[in-house]
Design goal:
The protein is an alpha+beta fold and about 350 residues long. The protein has 2 domains: about 1-190, no CATH class; about 200-344, Immunoglobulin-like (Sandwich). It contains 8 helices and 11 strands. It has helices at about 1-10, 15-40, 55-80, 85-100, 110-130, 135-160, 165-170, 170-190; strands spanning about 200-205, 210-215, 220-225, 240, 245-255, 260-270, 275-290, 295-300, 305-315, 320-330, 340-344. The strands form 3 sheets. It has a 5-stranded mixed β-sheet, with no helix packed on it. A 3-stranded antiparallel β-sheet has the order 1-5-8. The protein has a 3-stranded antiparallel β-sheet with strand order 2-3-11, with no helix packed on it. Helix 2 (about 15-40) runs antiparallel to helix 5, helix 3 packs across helix 5 (about 110-130) and helix 5 (about 110-130) packs across helix 8. The chain is elongated, with a radius of gyration of 24 Å. The two termini are about 35 Å apart.
C-alpha cells in the first residue's frame, strides 16, 4: 500500500524521462533476478558474492514485479473507461494484489515466466509508442514480438544452463503457455479490450456552448453542473435542449510529446423502436501531444432527438478513450439550471 501510494505521488507523465527510467530499471532488474534465482538451485553461485544474497531473490522478484504492476495500474487507470476496456484494468489490479501472495509460490517456474511475460508485453505496448511518437496496430504487434522474443530467449538461456530447471519444466509446455498468453493479449487488443495507453482522456463534457479565445488559447465551456454531492460526475446526465440549439461535446486528451493521433467523436442515439444504439454521426480531428492538460477539441450537433445519447471517443484503430453518456430532454418552456463555465 505504501509502495502504491509512493508510485501515485512520484509517477507523473508516461513520457517523462524519470518515469521511463524507473520502469526500465524495474523490468531490467526483474529479468536479472529471475536469471539469478533460477540458477541458484544448481549451486551456480556457491562461493561467489551472490551466495549470501540468494535468500533475498524471491523478495526482489516480488518487489520489482509489484513495482511494475503498481505503475501499470496508475497509468491504465487514467486511460480506462467504464466500458469493456475495464476488463484488462481489472486483470492488472488482480495481478497487483496477487503479487503480495507470490513469495510462497515463486518457485513455480510456470508462474514466474507467465507473470514476467505479461508485464514485459504490457511495458512495450506503451514504451514503443512513446519512443516512436506514434500509435498503430503495427507498433502493437512489434511490441508483442519484442516481448515474446525477450521472454523466450531468457527461458531458453536459463533452461540450457540449469539442470534443475530442465527437471522442473517442459519446454513445450512452457512455450505453449507463453504463446497462449501472447495470443490472449492480442485478442484483447483486436476486441478493443485494452485501454489506449499512452493516450488518456482528461476531461469530457456535454455542453451548451464552447468558445475559444484565440489570444489566450483558452476554451470556455458552458455546461449544466451536477449538485455538489454527485462527486462522481461534474456534468449533469440530463441535458435540457431547445429547438434550434446545438449540443457540444468537449474533450481534452493527453498524449505524449510530439505524438500525433486522429480521434473520433462517434455520436450514437438509443432508438426506442429498435432497442439498439444507432450511429448518427462520426466527426474526427487530429490531436498533438505534449500539453499537460491534454489536447482540447470539440464537436457539436443540431436538430437533436429526445432520448438517450452517448459519444464514443475513440482512435482510428477503434481503441476507446472514453464514453460520454447523456439524455436529451426537449422542453421549449424549460430553463436550464446550474449553468457553469469552465476554462480549459
Amino acid at each position: 500500500m505504501v509502495g502504491f501510494l509512493w508510485d501515485s505521488l512520484t509517477l507523473g507523465r508516461i513520457d517523462r524521462l524519470y518515469d521511463q527510467i524507473i520502469l526500465s530499471t524495474y523490468l531490467t532488474s526483474l529479468t536479472v533476478c529471475l536469471y539469478l534465482f533460477n540458477l541458484s538451485g544448481d549451486d551456480k553461485w556457491e562461493g561467489t558474492f551472490f551466495e549470501k544474497y540468494e535468500v533475498y531473490l524471491p523478495l526482489a522478484i516480488q518487489f520489482f514485479l509489484g513495482g511494475l504492476c503498481s505503475a501499470y495500474v496508475i497509468y491504465f487507470s487514467r486511460s480506462v473507461s467504464f466500458s469493456k476496456t475495464i476488463i484488462f484494468f481489472i486483470i492488472l489490479v488482480i495481478l497487483l494484489f496477487a503479487n503480495e501472495l507470490l513469495k510462497k509460490r515463486i518457485s513455480n517456474k510456470y508462474l514466474q515466466f507467465s507473470a514476467y511475460f505479461f508485464v514485459n508485453f504490457t511495458f512495450f505496448t506503451f514504451f514503443i509508442p512513446v519512443l516512436l511518437k506514434s500509435m498503430n496496430t503495427f507498433l502493437f504487434m512489434l511490441s508483442g514480438a519484442i516481448s515474446l522474443s525477450i521472454t523466450l530467449a531468457l527461458i531458453v538461456y536459463i533452461y540450457n544452463g540449469s539442470p534443475s530447471t530442465q527437471k522442473e519444466i517442459s519446454m513445450g509446455k512452457m512455450t505453449g503457455l507463453i504463446v497462449g498468453i501472447y495470443l490472449l493479449i492480442n485478442s484483447f487488443y483486436f476486441l478493443n479490450l485494452i485501454p489506449p495507453v499512452p493516450l488518456a482522456m482528461e476531461s469530457g463534457l456535454v455542453a451548451h456552448n464552447v468558445e475559444r479565445n484565440m489570444e489566450s488559447d483558452e476554451y470556455y465551456v458552458t455546461y449544466e453542473q451536477n449538485p455538489w454531492y454527485k462527486i462522481w460526475r461534474d456534468n449533469m446526465y440530463e441535458h435540457h435542449y431547445q429547438a434550434g440549439d446545438s449540443v457540444f461535446v468537449f474533450t481534452s486528451i493527453f498524449a505524449p510529446s510530439n505524438l500525433k493521433e486522429s480521434v473520433l467523436h462517434r455520436w450514437k442515439w438509443y432508438s426506442p423502436h429498435t432497442g439498439k444504439w444507432e450511429m448518427i454521426d462520426e466527426i474526427g480531428f487530429e490531436i498533438t501531444g505534449g500539453r499537460d492538460g491534454g489536447f482540447r477539441g470539440y464537436t457539436f450537433k443540431s436538430n437533436m432527438m429526445e432520448g438517450q445519447w452517448k459519444v464514443d471517443v475513440i482512435t482510428n484503430d477503434e481503441l476507446v478513450l472514453g464514453i460520454i453518456n447523456f439524455e436529451i430532454e426537449t422542453d421549449s418552456m424549460a430553463q436550464t439550471k446550474r449553468l457553469n463555465t469552465k476554462v480549459f
